[in-house]
Design brief:
By secondary structure, this protein is mainly α. About 50% of the residues lie in helices and about 5% in strands. The protein contains 26 helices and five strands. The strands form two sheets. Strands 3-4-5 form a three-stranded antiparallel sheet. α18 packs parallel to α19, α23 packs parallel to α24 and α23 packs parallel to α26. The two termini are about 45 Å apart. The relative contact order is 0.07. The N terminus is likely disordered.
Length: about 625
């Protein structure tokens, strides 16, 4: 019997990618099970409902990571099997390269490991060029750079973990204390430590890493390397595309619009609105996407012309954009002429002329985000009566919770904690992450009806609160579904904190034969372990001011992971007194070392310095899990 899987042409793969991107509106790289029917419809491969349910059942059976998400590669695998009119158990193991599309696979059921994964050379080339430029002056990367975009050097360059750590810090500065990176002696052990540090740090800034581990990266698995790098790069590119960090974005407010609408928009939506703001000023047509609508480069020419420096300021150089390229009839040649103009702004990044004419939405969005970061060209002339000083930025606690959720691969991607949780879909997914079963037949899923949308969302919120009070046994006094639906910060944070705490201590319950782990159990373990290690930094509670020095954390790490802490990096002060700078340096070092030894810590150094009890608890709980795993071996 012929078990071969139907191969997909480059054109078909691009069509599938376009269909996937239409459903994956938050660009998370995943769609949910309940979006599968709509996804096949977009791919012009409509299936009856019963067939979709069969596929989901098969997929669940092989979904080893239990993330309830379908990646593009997994979708392509399902599509291939349906096209071949048979369910094959074996995938090709050879690596082939055809028309710029690379394919590789393994053997299993329909799962992330059994997929014949595909990726485009264009994305690899774009990332290589970006990294070469961004890290060209980094002494620790001299042995890796410049990488050759025409071969697979990118996939071998991540092997020692140094490049990934540097990329995390490029995206979110100071996430990793670079004193912790093993840059000198590169053995399998030290490289693995770097990769663990990179993965746990990427998770802390909101990257989904549930399907990736150090051996995958050391093996240079292309789809995982590219997927992780894209998440890291995207977080950095989008970091300033929010009003609280760039109040000039307020000029994008539409006539009659409330500021709350602008605040609730995702970075992708804001980026599109930014482009259209400048296109409107240019008196030309606006765009609806970064794929089909930019293929003719017309929007790009006008955008570059609008944002280029006009020499208005004393120190500003004037850069003229040559618009004659618009007269070029050949789209690819026109795109090349456009990119030559982008090069004048030092912004020829992420896309080639072919990427523009092919409408690669991911790379084109990255190209535009880089333009925004370099030349936003937004000036507040009037604020429509809005006091910009009252626009509050995301708190550290809110950002930590949001990054935690996104690292678990929830869908949709959480950009704004309260707006994106108002239909409770993310909260219900988090319940399942902490082993609280959800009856999805009771859940209203998008797209919601035109009439009664909020009622459907409210029903979900009521169900989420009922689950919290019932099966989860959370303390939700005074919290109702309407509070979540309205985005009440106090009530939403109260529920989210209990979910995060349950997730953090879950591993302790597993190791402790189901024993319910309370704060005093964790505190007792911390102090007994410190005593066993002959340390004198015991703490009285998770509010103990001694924690502000991070010495209890560092001593605990030193006890459970010998030689992980370099004592010369620790400042113990004179007579136990430390300056605020010394405390912060200790905290940065402690958090990074904790992540390096395998503790998935989401807390920030400032949480230790300021002794935030909730976040302090999570740090010690993660270290307890690491310590108990070691003792269990």
């Amino acid at each position: 019997m012929d078990n071969r899987i139907t191969q997909i042409s480059r054109e078909d793969l691009e069509d599938l990618r376009e269909a996937f991107n239409k459903i994956d509106i938050d660009n998370s790289g995943h769609v949910s099970y309940f979006e599968l029917e709509e996804l096949f419809r977009e791919a012009s491969f409509s299936l009856p409902g019963f067939k979709i349910r069969e596929i989901v059942e098969i997929f669940i059976a092989g979904d080893t990571n239990k993330d309830e998400k379908i990646s593009f590669e997994e979708f392509v695998s399902i599509y291939q099997e349906l096209k071949s009119k048979q369910l094959s158990e074996t995938f090709r193991k050879t690596i082939t390269r055809r028309d710029g599309i690379c394919s590789f696979g393994g053997t299993s059921n329909i799962s992330s490991e059994g997929t014949q994964h595909s990726y485009s050379d264009e994305e690899k080339v774009a990332f290589v060029n970006w990294i070469n430029k961004a890290l060209e002056k980094d002494e620790d990367c001299k042995h890796l750079l410049p990488m050759n975009p025409d071969n697979d050097s990118l996939f071998t360059s991540v092997r020692d973990g140094i490049l990934l750590c540097k990329m995390v810090n490029l995206s979110q500065p100071d996430t990793i204390d670079e004193r912790v990176i093993n840059t000198k002696k590169r053995t399998t052990f030290t490289m693995t430590e770097n990769l663990v540090l990179a993965l746990n740090s990427a998770s802390a800034i909101g990257c989904t890493v549930v399907n990736i581990d150090a051996p995958d990266l050391m093996a240079g698995k292309p789809h995982l390397v590219l997927g992780l790098l894209w998440q890291i790069i995207k977080i950095g590119l989008f970091a300033d595309i929010e009003i609280s960090r760039n109040e000039a974005l307020i000029v994008l407010l539409g006539e009659g619009e409330e500021i709350d609408h602008l605040l609730s928009m995702s970075p992708e939506e804001l980026l599109l609105r930014w482009v259209n703001y400048h296109l409107g000023n240019a008196g030309t047509e606006t765009i609806k996407n970064f794929s089909e609508d930019i293929k003719d480069s017309r929007a790009y020419f006008h955008l570059l012309d609008q944002i280029s420096p006009k020499g208005d300021g004393d120190d500003e150089m004037k850069i003229d954009i040559d618009m004659t390229g618009l007269n070029e009839r050949d789209y690819e040649h026109r795109a090349e002429l456009m990119l030559q103009q982008a090069a004048k702004l030092d912004c020829r990044q992420f896309v080639s002329a072919q990427d523009v004419t092919a409408g690669n939405s991911k790379l084109n969005m990255a190209f535009v985000a880089n333009l925004f970061n370099m030349y936003p060209a937004l000036r507040i002339t009037q604020t429509n009566g809005i006091d910009t000083a009252l626009i509050e930025g995301e708190s550290r606690e809110e950002r930590t919770f949001r990054n935690w959720m996104n690292s678990l691969g929830v869908s949709p991607h959480v950009n704004h904690l309260y707006c994106d949780l108002c239909d409770a879909l993310v909260i219900l997914q988090l319940y399942e992450k902490v082993n609280v079963p959800v009856d999805w037949k009771k859940v209203n899923k998008p797209p919601y009806p035109a009439l009664g949308t909020n009622m459907k969302k409210l029903e979900n919120c009521n169900y989420a609160v009922d689950l919290g009070r019932g099966k989860a046994r959370f303390s939700l006094v005074g919290i109702g579904g309407e509070n979540l639906n309205e985005g009440s910060p106090m009530h939403t944070l109260a529920l989210v904190w209990q979910l995060m705490r349950r997730y953090t201590v879950q591993v302790l319950s597993d190791l402790g034969d189901g024993e319910k782990v309370g704060d005093q159990v964790i505190l007792g373990w911390v102090n007994s372990t410190l005593t066993e290690g002959r340390k004198d930094t015991q703490i009285s509670s998770f509010k103990d001011k001694r924690i502000s020095t991070s010495l209890p954390v560092l001593d605990l790490i030193d006890t459970i992971a010998a030689n992980a802490v370099k004592q010369e990096m620790v400042n113990r002060g004179e007579n136990g007194e430390l300056s605020n700078d010394d405390k912060l340096n200790n905290a940065k070092y402690a958090i990074s070392v904790a992540r390096k030894i395998g503790a998935r810590v989401y807390a920030l150094p400032e949480d230790l310095v300021e002794v935030k009890p909730k976040m302090v608890l999570t740090v010690f709980a993660c270290l307890m899990g690491r310590g108990l795993k070691k003792a269990d071996r």
